[in-house]
């Protein structure tokens, strides 16, 4: 283990179950503060209400059902400022949004993306799930299919968006889209791989891997920020 006294400080913010638009707005506020020098590096953990988001390289053509079906299921489709195509977010999925100033890490977005993948790969290894990268594709994969999506954005080297790891979501929502624009590869969850575990437990495991890979310390104290809890 490296000398943690030399690690950078990062805040951890648990948002709980939150509509996507609200979490996105909060990301934008934190990123603006980080760019101005008044904010800190922060990792957000959140679950979303069911939603489809489409990145800058995406298309609504990858939605396989009609608008009527979407309305019946109560599903929003939101175009966002991250890379990638369409993905699903919903309960049972751990979503992480690092707001990091990469000038304090490494100014390389491709490297940053692979480091996020590495965090998830190491996390899954703790549950004896063998996962890996696929050449030419983003995210984290298993022999049964894609288990985690990566989609990032950055402005002035301050990152937004991040990753989503399927722990035990309702996987039927993925059937209504071509996840990440891919038509011939399945999506899988930890539960479908035989791992029954809570989001809280996986979150703690992932937090430890994130701290090691990005060489950060998370503050021990808890700070109240209105409806959110920082700790």
From TrEMBL:
Matches recorded under InterPro entries: aa-tRNA-synth_II/BPL/LPL, BPL_LPL_catalytic, Octanoyltransferase, Octanoyltransferase_CS
Binding residues for substrate: 82-89, 149-151, 162-164
Signal peptide: none
Enzyme Commission number(s): 2.3.1.181
Sorted UniProt keywords: Acyltransferase, Cytoplasm, Transferase
Intracellular or extracellular location(s): Cytoplasm
Main location: cytoplasm
HAMAP family linked to this entry: LipB
NCBIfam families in the record: lipB, PRK14345.1
Family: Belongs to the LipB family.
Record's protein name: Octanoyltransferase
This protein's encoding gene: lipB
């Amino acid at each position: 283990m490296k000398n943690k006294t030399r690690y950078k400080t990062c805040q951890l913010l648990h948002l709980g179950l939150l509509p996507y638009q609200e979490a996105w707005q909060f990301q934008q506020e934190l990123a603006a503060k980080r760019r101005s020098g008044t904010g800190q590096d922060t990792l957000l953990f959140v679950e979303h209400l069911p939603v489809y988001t489409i990145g800058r390289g995406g298309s609504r053509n990858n939605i396989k059902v009609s608008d009527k079906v979407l309305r019946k299921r109560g599903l929003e489709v939101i175009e966002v400022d991250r890379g990638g195509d369409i993905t699903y977010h919903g309960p049972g999925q751990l979503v992480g949004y690092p707001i990091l100033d990469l000038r304090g890490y490494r100014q390389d977005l491709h490297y940053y993306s692979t480091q996020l993948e590495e965090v998830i790969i190491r996390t899954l290894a703790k549950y004896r799930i063998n996962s890996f990268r696929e050449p030419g594709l983003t995210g984290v994969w298993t022999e049964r299919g894609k288990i985690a999506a990566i989609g990032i954005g950055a402005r002035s080297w301050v990152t937004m968006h991040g990753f989503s790891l399927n722990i035990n979501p309702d996987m039927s929502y993925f059937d209504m889209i071509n996840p990440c624009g891919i038509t011939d590869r399945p999506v899988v969850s930890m539960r479908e791989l035989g791992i029954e575990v809570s989001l809280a437990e996986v979150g703690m495991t992932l937090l430890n891997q994130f701290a090691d890979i990005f060489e950060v310390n998370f503050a021990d104290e808890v700070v109240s920020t209105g409806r959110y809890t920082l700790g």
